[in-house]
Design brief:
Elements: H1 4-9, E1 12-16, E2 20-22, E3 26-33, E4 37-45, E5 50-58, E6 75-79, E7 87-95, H2 108-111, E8 117-123, E9 133-137, H3 139-144, E10 164-167, H4 199-208, E11 213-217, H5 218-223, E12 233-239, E13 242-244, H6 245-256, E14 260-266, E15 271-275, E16 281-284, H7 307-310, H8 314-317, E17 320-327, E18 337-339, E19 357-358, E20 368-371, E21 374-376, E22 382-384, E23 395-401, E24 410-411, E25 423-431, E26 433-437, H9 443-446, H10 451-464
Parallel strand pairs: 2-8, 9-11, 9-12, 12-14, 13-15, 14-26
Antiparallel strand pairs: 1-3, 3-6, 4-5, 4-7, 7-8, 10-16, 15-16, 17-20, 17-24, 18-19, 18-23, 21-22, 23-25, 25-26
Length: 465
C-alpha cells in the first residue's frame, strides 16, 4: 500500500489474551489485519487519557470466530514496563507504523470505538503498597453485552444450548466490539455497556480528586481470594451486573473481616456467571425449564442464575434490582433521591436538608436502580424491613419512588412481594466493614454535573478509607 487513504481503510482488530496483567510482566495481544504492519498505542485512562507507549508488528489476517469460542488470532507479546501505574488502559490499533489519525483524546469517550480498540487492566506489582482503594472493573458485565461473534448473554438460546457461554477471547469487553443495548438518551456519546460510559467518568473524577487506587478485573477477584484484603475499600461504579460465585464469596469475606465496599452504581450482582477453569469464558443460565425462548426472564421466577432466588444479593450489597427497575429506551422523567438523615456524614458540606431532592434535574435515578424493601416509620422515614435479605441496620439515606403510570417506560422484575411500591434506596450498613450503595447506574454520569454528587462521593470514599 502506497497511499494513505487505502491504508486508513484497513482495519486492525484485536483482544488481550487476558484482560489484566501485572506491571513488569508480559501482555499477549491477539490481532488480525490485512495490513502488512500494524501499530498499537497504549493510553492509560485517568483525568484524561495519557499516552504511555506503543508497539509495532507484522500484520497477519485471521478469520473471526463465534461468540462462544476463543478466536485464536495471532499473538504478539508486549512487555509491560514495571513503572506503569495500575490502571485501565486502552490500545488504539491501526495499520502501518505511524500513529493513528485521531486527535489527542480529551477523555475516554474520544478513545471508544466498536473496532480497532482493546482494553486491559494493569494490576499493581505490590497490591496495596501505595493505595488503600481497589477499583473493580466489571469485565464479566462487559462481555455479557459484547456481541462479537454474533451473540451475547442475551437473546434466545440455540436448540443445542441450555445455558449461554461467551468467550473472553474475542474483540470487545469494554471497548472495540459491538454492544447489545439501546442508546442512552441522557448521554448518547458512547454505548451504555462500555468502559467509556460509566467507569471512565468515575475514574477520571476519582483520580482528579486526589484519590489513589489500584485496579483489577472481576476475574482477578474470582481467582485471588485475598486480593481485596490488601486494601481498605473495594469500589465499583456504574453497571456491575454479573458476578461469579467466587467473586461474591471473596468480597463477602473481605466485608466480614472489616473491609469496606462502596458501590456507585446499580443492577449490581443481579446475574450469576460461572467462569470456565481456564478463565477464558463465562456462562449463565437464564431460562427456567420450559420457558419460551426470548421471554423476559427478569419478570419470572425459576431463572437458575438469578442471585436473588437462591442467595439474595441484598445480604451483601444491601439492595436489589428486583425492588427497583430500569428505564431502557428514550428520555425518562426527572427523578432524584428524597433525602432523609440529612445530618449523616455522607451529606456533610452539601447543604442538603431533610426532604430535599438530590439529582432530579439531571435524571439521577436510572437507567437502572436498586432498592431495599421498606416501610415508613412514625416520622414518615423509609426504614428497611429486611424481608428481602437486606441486613439489619441498613440506613436509607434517600428514596426515589418509581413511576407506575402506564407508558412511563419503567421495567420491573419479579420479587417476593409488591408491597410497598418500587423505589431506589440510597444507603449503607455496617457488618464487619461498611457497605455503601448509591443504588443508581447513573451516579457517575452526574459527577461532572452536580457538585453535591461530587461532595457525597468524596465524603463516602474518605469515610471508608
Amino acid at each position: 500500500m502506497t497511499d494513505e487513504a487505502p491504508l486508513q481503510r484497513v482495519v486492525v482488530d484485536g483482544y488481550p489474551g487476558r484482560a489484566s496483567v501485572r506491571a513488569g510482566e508480559v501482555l499477549r495481544l491477539h490481532l488480525s489485519t490485512r495490513a502488512e504492519r500494524f501499530r498499537a498505542d497504549f493510553y492509560r485512562c485517568g483525568p484524561r487519557p495519557r499516552l504511555m507507549g506503543h508497539m509495532e508488528g507484522r500484520g497477519t489476517y485471521a478469520e473471526p470466530g463465534g461468540h462462544d469460542e476463543d478466536w485464536n488470532w495471532p499473538g504478539h507479546d508486549v512487555p509491560i514496563p514495571a513503572h506503569w501505574p495500575s490502571g485501565v488502559y486502552v490500545a488504539v490499533l491501526g495499520p502501518g507504523a505511524e500513529p493513528p489519525a485521531i486527535p489527542s483524546p480529551a477523555d475516554a469517550a474520544a478513545l471508544d470505538a466498536r473496532h480497532s480498540r482493546l482494553l486491559f487492566v494493569v494490576t499493581a506489582r505490590e497490591p496495596g503498597r501505595t493505595a488503600r482503594i481497589l477499583y473493580k472493573v466489571p469485565l464479566f458485565t462487559y462481555h455479557a453485552y459484547n456481541r462479537s461473534g454474533g451473540a451475547s448473554l442475551y437473546g434466545a438460546l440455540a436448540r443445542t444450548e441450555d445455558r449461554r457461554t461467551v468467550s473472553l477471547g474475542r474483540p470487545g469487553g469494554g471497548t472495540g466490539g459491538p454492544v447489545k443495548g439501546r442508546p442512552d438518551a441522557h448521554d448518547p456519546r458512547t454505548p451504555r455497556q462500555t468502559f467509556a460510559h460509566w467507569d471512565a467518568p468515575f475514574i477520571a473524577w476519582l483520580e482528579a480528586s486526589g484519590f489513589t487506587a489500584d485496579y483489577c478485573t472481576d476475574l482477578d477477584l474470582d481467582e485471588a481470594p485475598e486480593l481485596a484484603h490488601h486494601y481498605r475499600l473495594l469500589l465499583s461504579a456504574g453497571h456491575d451486573e454479573y458476578w461469579s460465585e467466587r467473586v461474591r464469596r471473596h468480597v463477602t469475606a473481605f466485608r466480614d473481616q472489616g473491609g469496606n465496599i462502596a458501590i456507585f452504581g446499580a443492577n449490581t450482582c443481579w446475574w450469576r456467571v460461572t467462569p470456565n477453569a481456564a478463565g477464558t469464558a463465562i456462562s449463565c443460565s437464564k431460562y427456567p425449564p420450559g420457558v419460551p425462548q426470548g421471554a423476559d426472564t427478569d419478570r419470572m421466577r425459576g431463572a437458575p442464575d438469578h442471585w436473588w432466588e437462591t442467595e439474595p444479593e441484598n445480604r451483601l450489597i444491601g439492595v436489589s434490582y428486583r425492588n427497583g427497575g430500569g428505564h431502557w429506551d428514550g428520555p425518562r422523567e426527572p427523578l432524584g433521591f428524597t433525602v432523609q438523615h440529612a445530618g449523616h456524614p455522607a451529606f456533610a458540606g452539601t447543604g442538603l436538608r431533610e426532604g430535599d431532592v438530590l439529582g432530579a434535574e439531571y435524571h439521577l435515578v436510572g437507567y437502572e436502580c436498586d432498592g431495599a424493601a421498606y416501610r415508613r416509620d412514625q416520622h414518615g422515614r423509609a426504614v428497611a424491613t429486611g424481608n428481602d435479605g437486606t441486613p439489619d441496620g441498613y440506613t436509607i439515606l434517600g428514596v426515589a419512588d418509581l413511576p407506575t403510570a402506564p407508558g412511563s417506560g419503567w421495567h420491573t422484575a419479579a420479587r417476593e412481594s409488591d408491597d410497598p411500591g418500587r423505589a431506589a434506596t440510597l444507603g449503607l450498613y455496617t457488618r464487619g466493614g461498611t457497605v455503601f450503595n448509591a443504588a443508581t447506574t447513573d451516579w457517575p454520569r452526574l459527577l461532572p454535573l452536580d457538585p453535591r454528587i461530587q461532595t457525597i462521593t468524596r465524603n463516602v470514599i474518605t469515610l471508608l478509607t
